[in-house]
Amino acid sequence: MNLNKRQKLILDKLLKKYENSKSYKGENSVRQSFAVEPSKIFEKYEDDFADLDEVRNFEQEVAGLQQSGLIDIVYKDNHIAKIIAIDEENVWNQLRNILGVKEKKILLQESLDFYTSCLDKHAVIKNFCDVQIERIYQGKKELYPLESVKIIVAFLDYILNNQQEILERELSIEVAHDSKVWEKSYRSQVCKILRESGCFDELASQESEIKEFEKKILEELNVYPNPSYVHFKGNAKIIFDNGDIVSVLRDRPLALPSTILNSITKIEIFEKKLMTVENLTSFNRVQHDNSFFVYLSGYHNTAKRKFIQLIKNQNETLEFYHFGDIDPDGLLILENLKYKTGIDFQPFCMGVEQLKKYERYCKTLVENDTVKADGLIKSGKYVETVQYMLDNNVKLEQEIISWNEK
């Protein structure tokens, strides 16, 4: 049957009304009727200034559906008042065939089968699928069409099990066989699921900008828009598996792409300390004696942790420090660094002494700071410093310290 766009829209609306009804679900003892008003299809149908030829065409289209035995029409004052579905199973099946869609019950069962098949995957995927299964049983609309869900889960499955750095366009080709579909259609959806999983709450609390959070969370999972680099400076020697040797100096910062970190066979640090630095300005400025510096860019990613752990394994006498903002987030970054690397980093210039010394540069706490500060105190972390912040309503960015204490 050759129907135009408007005729198919009528049938689609009627079918959806039926399949969303209690009658379709078998929950209604009273026979229902399913109708659509003509203005829902042709907005200007009842407008006094409507084009009469357009009105006539519309009425002929509806009459054609009636002649085909697909709908019935209720007239009032020689105008169409309602377009009514013929509530017979064979007619509903005919509508589905015309529209090229499956019955809703079949679609829901296909969705349930897919979600159930994913319950043995990573906890993030399992939790997502559990929620979708519950939505289906509660009669709620699924968050995404099944075909989209299959691709979303495929991206999640790859990312959550990936151990090597991959660029976003490479990821897109690997999973969806299209270099642009990830960024165009699935990046934000996948990151939203990751964010809502609760596994990345620390990153979420750090980044208020959605795009920046997406970047950070993907970096944590070895996915980058472009190759990632580790920035560092200090006296050191790096030997690669091909025999190349690179000398590093305090006054000549270097950066290595994370893709070649695995080719380092030996790294010798000719300093007493390794110090990670939270912010770029302070990394560029700080020149503390006997220290090898690694720039973190806020929360560290996998590449930077691997580099630090490599240094740790090959330089047994090295001491480890972290220099960051003196605020709850800065201390949480330090705690996360210790946890993720297994190294007992000590805070550098991140205490009450600096808060007092640079008091005139301090900022006041915001509500989220207070919540995080309370959490640190309850866990027994940096209690003296955090309590001073709360008592005096202060926090301090590290840049003023690196500028003055050279």
Report Rg.
31 Å
Largest sheet report: 6 strands, mixed
CATH topology of the largest domain: Dna Topoisomerase Vi A Subunit, Chain: A, domain 2
* Alpha carbon gap, first and last residue: 81 Å
The share of residues in helices is: 40-55%
> Can you identify the CATH class of the largest domain?
Alpha Beta
Strand content: 5-15%
Number of structural units classed as domains = 3
Q: Just name the CATH architecture of the largest domain.
A: 3-Layer(aba) Sandwich
Number of helices: 18
Characterize the quaternary organization of these chains.
single chain
Name the strands of the widest sheet in spatial order.
9-6-12-11-13-14
Estimate the global geometry from the Cα principal axes: elongated
Report the count of strand segments.
14
Mean pLDDT: 91
Q: Structural class of the secondary elements?
A: alpha/beta
